[in-house]
Amino acid sequence: MVDNARARLLIVDDEPLILEVLSEHFKTDYDVETALNGADALGAILRARPDVVMLDINMPRMNGVEVLKDIKQIDESIAVIMVTANEQISMAAEALKHGAFGYVPKPFDFRYLDHMLATILDRPRPPRR
């Protein structure tokens, strides 16, 4: 990756309004792509590897933990931030066991999200496969 290239962020949530709000917040600093479900997210990752995936836990058909496991099989170096509602803390803990970088609760604290992304992107990363 060229040093001045913008980091790629994939946001996955089944709620279009959340995708819109997060995209608007991050698009000035990152190349943002969105997906409404796990299958679309995996397709997006195969097309163009993101640096970070922000992944909702509670989605129909394929929940976020299942998607996380598939992401880690595709490329374990992709950092994944799980997005949770308060009642999903046990699922967030399971996601951490499966390689998630961390989790953020809804409603979002954008300063915390910005800090978490900066922390991920400042750490040394292996080259993309």
Mean pLDDT: 90
Helical element count? Answer: 5
Q: Based on CA inertia axes, which overall geometry fits?
A: globular
Residues in helix, %: 40-55%
Radius of gyration: 13 Å
Poorly predicted regions: none
User: What is the CA–CA distance across the termini?
Assistant: 11 Å
Total strand count, please?
5
Order of neighbouring strands in the sheet with most strands: 2-1-3-4-5
Class by helix and strand content?
Answer: alpha/beta
Structure description:
The chain is of the alpha/beta class and 129 residues long. Helix content is 42%, strand content 19%. The protein has helices spanning 16-26, 38-47, 64-74, 89-97, 110-122; strands at 8-12, 31-35, 52-56, 79-84, 102-105. A 5-stranded parallel β-sheet has the order 2-1-3-4-5, with helices on both faces. Helix 3 (64-74) links the parallel strand 3 and strand 4. The longest helix is centred in the C-terminal third of the chain and has 13 residues, at 110-122. It is globular and about 35 Å long. The termini are close together.
